[in-house]
What we know:
alpha/beta; elongated; CATH 2.40.50.1020; Rossmann fold; five-stranded parallel β-sheet; five-stranded antiparallel β-sheet
Amino acid sequence: MKIRIIIVDDEPLALQKLRHYLADEPDVEIVGESQNGPEAVVLTENLKPDLLLLDIQMPGMDGFQVLEALPHPPLVIFITAYNQYAIHAFEVNSLDYLLKPFTKERLREAITRAKKWMEPGVDFAASISKLLKTLERKPYLEKLVVKKDGKIILIEVQDVLWVGSEKTLNFIHTLKGTYGTDLTLQELEQKLDPVHFFRIHRSAIINIDAIAEIVPWFGGDYKVMLKDPNRTALVLSRRRVKAFKEIFLW
C-alpha cells in the first residue's frame, strides 16, 4: 500500500526537486502539492494524506501554523534551510526534519522512517530522541580569522567568494582582497554552512551565492564563473558534478 503524500514549499524549484526525488520511490504517491500555507490546509483536509512534506518558512502562513490549523494533522516531515526550528518541529510531533540542501538518500531515509512509524507498536518518543541527537551540531561560522601583512583580520563569512589551496597554503578570497588562513579546506568545509558553500574541487570551495554562470569544459569538467570583477573561473570536477546538480536541479 502506497504512502499518500502532499508536498508543500513556496519555492517552485524545491517542489520540482521533491517530485524528482520521490519519483524513484515505488511505495509513494504524491496526491497534492501547494506553494502556500492556506492552500496546504485545504488540500490536507480534503485529501487526508498519510504524510506531509512541509516547508517551514513560507510567507503569510508558515509550516507550524499549517499544522495548528489542522484538527487532525497527518504525519509530517519538515523541510527547511534553518536548523534553529528543530526543537519546535519535534514539539509538534514532526516525524523528521530535513535540512536543505538534502540528498535523495536523506529523503529516502525520512520516508523509510515514516513507513516504520505507520506500523503498529512503534515507539515514536524513542524515534524523536534519536532524531534530536542527529541535529546536535556546532553552529556554522559567521566570521573567519584571517591573516594579511602580518595582521590578524576578522571577515564576514558572507563576504567570502571562494577558498583555494595552493601547494601547502590556503587562501580566502573576497572582493576586498585575498587572505591567508591556517584552516585546512577540510576544516572549512565542515565549518561553513553547506546551504551557501560547496566544495567544487579538492582545492576549492565556493560561495554558491557568488556564482555567475557554469560553462562546460574539457573531459566532463565544468568551469564555474564567479561574479567578481575579474570573472574568476574555477574548475568543477567530474567527481563533484552529481552533488552539484542535486543542489540546483540542473
